[in-house]
Amino acid sequence: MKHTLLKLAALAAALTLAAGCAGAPASSGASGAVSGVSGPASGDTGAGGEETPAAPAEYRAMWVSYLEWESFDFSSQEAFAAQADAMMDQCAALGLNTVIAQVRPFADALYDSDLFPWSHLCTGVQGEGPGFDPLAVLVESAHARGLALEAWVNPYRVRLNASRPAGELDAENPALLHPEWVKEVDGGLYFDPSLEAVRQLITEGVLELVRKYEVDGIHFDDYFYPTTDPAFDAAEYEAAASGLSLEEWRRENVNALVRQVYAAIKEEDPTVRFGISPQGNMDNNYNSQYSDVSLWMAEGGYVDYVLPQLYWGYGYTTASGSTRYAFENISAEWAALERAPSVALYLGLGAYRIGDGDGGANADSQSGWQTGHVLADMVEDGRALGADGYVLYRYDFLYKNSAWADLAARELEALTAANEE
Questions:
Q1: Which of 148, 231, 355, 360: CA 20 to 30 A from 176?
Q2: What share of the chain has pLDDT > 90, as a percent?
């Protein structure tokens, strides 16, 4: 559907009213470094009392990012559907039960939205649609094979850098219609997490997905605050006069969004699940992106699941000699965190490390990823820890890995066997 200025003007008016009444960096993960550790380049539900949505006995999922869509054929619904069907067939054959498909990577949409322009991924030009609805195709394809389909949304990111998204932003992109909602950081463009209008836009965007499509879940990745620079939101912080430190205030801004989105989803459809995939590095989450993940896990009313990106191998060692982030240690650290009965823990596993390794200072930092069964080993160890499932990052590294094709095939064989147990 072609966006109109009238629709967005109406939205802006609603957001302004909501604000007045309220008072007061290429992968699924953002890059971050703490203590010499680099992140990847990429029951009772609390006070609301909502029914907990059903989850599989073991959640087994695949991330499919906008990077996968770059190689998809959007020239016709038939061409796109053929590729989607092949992807879903492979995920089902692997023994997975869920596909997490990125449908809004840059304040744009791989679906017919009244709030966001069509993604450039569809036609090469943001704002121009492909003549069919890719998300509708994905939902139908997944459900036909018994797979759940979760819609993956990047909440704040409008532009990562000069080349992503490719080309110009559409003139009716909310970020251009409301430049007061956005901040620029290192060539990227992000919605300001402190603004009630921004939280309302993101919430309405989620509700649009839940209302228009039979999605089984809404999934946020780990892009929250894009910088620790105090200048980023100095004026907003001063105006808020919250009495909180800057760090506490920023964390509460993110908490407010997460609470609001969760509550909106549950009010609309309690069976739709809401989950977030933070970085595996807890320090980065809390101190760099201002996301209080341990709070979300311990209390109901924020998320149905947390999915940390544990993209380090066994024995991973930093240059300073720390092994905190070795898979066997960091997975145990996450598993030991308090979590409410309604909150599941899934482990994000880095299939993109196959063959290439994780860059650790340990001697086997590459060879440890060349066994042909490291992902399956991680799945088994996650089960032993009491994790509720796992997700693989990402599809292309298992099914289109020309650099390590034999290794990827062996990993798939080992994973299939692990899922048959």
A1: 231
A2: 85
Contact 191, 15 (CB under 8 A): no
Domain, as residue range, for 128:
5-25+59-307
**pLDDT tens across 344-397, in order?**
999 999 999 999 999 999 999 999 999 999 999 999 999 999 999 999 999 999
Query: Is the residue at 233 inside a domain?
Result: yes
**What CATH number is associated with residue 155?**
3.20.20.80
Handedness of CA 33, 34, 37, 42 (dihedral sign): negative
DSSP secondary structure string for all residues of 172-230? T-HHHH-GGGEEEETTEEEE-TT-HHHHHHHHHHHHHHHHHS--SEEEE-S-------G
pTM of the model: 0.88
Instruction: Let me know: does 417 contact 376? Beta carbons within 8 Å.
Output: yes
- Token reading at 62: 């695949």
Instruction: Spell out the residues 6+ positions from residue 268 whose beta carbon is closer than 8 angstroms to its own.
Output: 207, 210, 211
Residue with tokens 């240690």: 329
Hunting for tokens 């009213």 — which residue is that?
17
Strand order in the sheet with 182-185: 157-159, 188-191, 182-185
Dihedral angle, C-alpha 120, 123, 129, 135, nearest 10 °: -80
In a domain, 299, yes or no: yes
Residue 5 structure tokens = 């200025």
Reported in sequence order, the residue ranges of 262-340 that DSSP labels E, i.e. its strands, are 273-276, 305-306, 309-310
Q: Is 355 part of any domain?
A: no
Q: Are 96 and 147 in contact (CB under 8 A)?
A: yes
Output b/e per residue, 368-407; b: 16+ Cβ within 10 A. Answer: bbebbbbbbbbbebbbeeebbbbbbbbbbbbbebeebeeb
- The structure tokens listed for 149 are 């389909």
DSSP 169: P
Number of separate domains in the chain: 1
Return the percent helix, strand and coil in the chain, to nearest 5: 40, 15, 45
CA distances from 168 to 41, 72, 130, 201 (A): 24, 21, 17, 21
Which amino acid is it at 114? D
In angstroms, the CA 189 to CA 210 distance is 26
